[in-house]
Amino acid sequence: MSKVIGLTGGIATGKSAASDDLIALGIPTLDLDAITHELEQNNHDLIQQIYELFGPASISNGQVNRRALGKMVFTDHDKMKQLVQIVNPFVFRTVKEELNQLQDRHLVILNAPTLFENGFQTLTDGNLMITCDPMIQIKRLMKRNNVSISQASKMIGSQWSQSIKSQLSDWCIDNSGTPAQLKSLVKDWYTLVSDV
Question: Is residue 55 marked as binding?
Answer without folding.
Answer: no
